[in-house]
Amino acid sequence: xxxxxxxxxxxxxxxxxxxxxxxxxxxxxxxxxxxxxxxxxxxxxxxxxxxxxxxxxxxxxxxxxxxxxxxxxxxxxxxxxxxxxxxxxxxxxxxxxxxxxxxxxxxxxxxxxxxxxxxxxxxxxxxxxxxxxxxxxxxxxxxxxxxxxxxxxxxxxxxxxxxxxxxxxxxxxxxxxxxxxxxxxxxxxxxxxxxxxxxxxxxxxxxxxxxxxxxxxxxxxxxxxxxxxxxxxxxxxxxxxxxxxxxxxxxxxxxxxxx
Length: 259
Description:
- The chain is of the alpha/beta class.
- The protein has 10 helices and 12 strands.
- The protein has helices spanning 32-41, 63-70, 86-94, 104-108, 111-120, 159-169, 190-199, 213-221, 232-235, 241-250, and strands at residues 5-13, 16-21, 24-30, 47-51, 77-80, 99-102, 125-133, 144-148, 153-158, 173-178, 204-207, 227-230.
- The chain is globular.
- The model has no long low-confidence stretch (mean pLDDT 90).
């Protein structure tokens, strides 16, 4: 059995790690290089870095910050934000990332998924989805709609249909970013995460809503997520990666040691 992964997320805006609620009201919480080193030394299994305003501002990712972070850590490192072309993807990989996370750029040009998979391998291509609950309809039968540009723009796509299409195109992992749960610390979006984990044959990563270690247990056990992203609960020192892993191990969840 593969161990469950715990992945701190660094949402970066104007060179600083920031955190908000439901993709709004962000406040700065620290320096990305220092925080990356802290998480690496604290036992994180992977790290994800999102330049959260690059897509909305239609600009390139902050490659200098990506390089600085990559120089400090020796764990898998996924980078996203403003990636629109194969050259954008190549740039972050050359800067030290192991994976590229594509979101709004993939919605605008789905072929970028297959282009990236052919060029770098599916294991490098992560399809990240911004998802919001909406009334079920013929267009959105699951009741979960895809948004882009930092949760600002609905696109009228059903989340389950989009993730299945993304995997068919070559995505090697799916990240489920719940807009509704983001920053609330009320728990992950279990129903959607479980539905996607049941649907696709690739690893599924839950994102948005972690408030305590039990929330991670719930998404691993009830929704069969392969990994869970954390931010608020560890950024502000409420829990450490070691605290979380110790709790999960005691609950029978298979995790990697931090020592």
